[in-house]
Amino acid sequence: MKNLFIPILLAASTFVSGASFAGETPSPDGAKVYFINLKDGMEVTNPVNIKFGLSGMGVSPAGVESLENTGHHHLIIDEQIEGEELDYGIPDDEKHIHFGKGQTEATLDLPKGTHILQLVLGDWSHVPHDKPVMSKRIKITVK
Which of its termini does the chain have fewer beta carbons within 10 Å around, N or C? Predict the structure, then answer.
């Protein structure tokens, strides 16, 4: 019985410690990222202007590690980042758009139809913070 106890204890501690998925860069309590000009259920036309809001933290370009309580925006389109994905750099593709120069808005042409959008703040290396700073997911329809 003793021989089984240690592996079970180690497995349980790994599960519990891994359950709080996020990178190593801390975020302050109360930090929020949000859409300024888009609301859930909105109908829009191309080009779609998207303004990013942030409170409780500042914006800094990717690659700038020395500034505390800062990050840069990532727009997630029709995807979701969750679980262990929060431990790694956010992909850079047509569904995960990086704004690593510190941009706070974007103008995009999105395909007509319904889309789910979410903002995720990434640290200097594109990894979500420890306590991820993510907006609510919103649904928009491009006419």
Answer: N
52, β-bridge pairs: 35
CA distance 64 to 66: 6
Residue 100 tokens read as 């690593």
How does pLDDT run across 91-135, given as a tens digit for each residue? 999 999 999 999 999 999 999 999 999 999 999 999 999 999 999
Rounded to two decimals, the pTM is 0.84
User: Residue 49: which CATH number?
Assistant: 2.60.40.10
In a domain, 8, yes or no: no
Joined together, the tokens standing for residue 138 give: 């919103």
Q: Which structural domain range is residue 92 located in?
A: 21-142
Q: Is the bond into 47 cis (omega within 30 degrees of 0)?
A: yes
- Three-state secondary structure call for residue 82: coil
Residues 6 or more apart whose CB falls under 8 angstroms from that of 33 comprise: 52, 53, 54, 73, 119, 120, 121, 133, 134, 135
Contacts of 82 (CB under 8 A, 6+ apart): 21
